[in-house]
Design a protein that fits this description.
This protein has a single domain, classed as Ferritin. The protein is an all-alpha fold. The model has no long low-confidence stretch (mean pLDDT about 95). The radius of gyration is 17 Å and the shape is elongated. It is built from five helices and no strands.
Length: about 170
């Protein structure tokens, strides 16, 4: 059994992961409407991954006899000015998630909750990977530029990154 404080904090994390899933799904829809198929595929995959992160916390809370709550999700944005601005928003959100995971870890350490501390280690590694991926995408977009003609190249680059991520997932990396 975990503390009430940890239960509340984990439920807040569930909400944050759910918001990310819906945000990325909204981004996928926007990309699709803009003809950015590669970006849409990438954001759909990211949305599903965030949902899995949320469900992983649900399962953990059940295992430790805590009550996971289904979150109310705030309305996410539906329009984005450019792919670069969209990915900047993703990067900022991933940084917010990282800070939240670190806060959870601080609570676990303060409460000597070794089980939750161990559980959170997966999220620490995952967030490092997510932030690195988003920085890498932003670096590529900056190199390509943001004129209308370069949207095609940005979309192709994101599609290639998505293909690599799908292959890595299939291998269990």
């Amino acid at each position: 059994m975990i503390s009430k404080k940890m239960t509340k904090a984990l439920n807040q994390q569930i909400s944050l992961e759910g918001y990310a899933s819906f945000l990325y799904l909204s981004m996928a829809s926007w990309c699709d409407s803009e003809g950015l198929e590669g970006c849409a595929n990438f954001m759909n995959r990211q949305s599903e991954e965030e949902r899995e992160h949320m469900l992983k916390i649900f399962e953990y809370m059940s295992e430790v006899d805590a009550h996971a709550l289904t979150p109310a999700i705030a309305q996410v944005p539906h329009k984005f000015s450019t792919p670069q601005k969209m990915f900047e928003m993703v990067y900022q959100h991933e940084q917010k998630v990282t800070k939240s995971i670190h806060s959870l870890l601080k609570i676990a350490k303060a409460e000597n909750d070794y089980t939750t501390e161990n559980f959170l280690q997966w999220y620490i590694m995952e967030q490092r990977e997510e932030e690195n991926l988003m920085r890498s995408i932003l670096d590529k977009i900056k190199l390509i530029g943001d004129s209308p003609m370069t949207l095609y190249y940005i979309d192709k680059e994101i599609d290639a990154i998505n293909d690599l991520e799908v292959k890595a997932d299939a291998k269990g990396e």
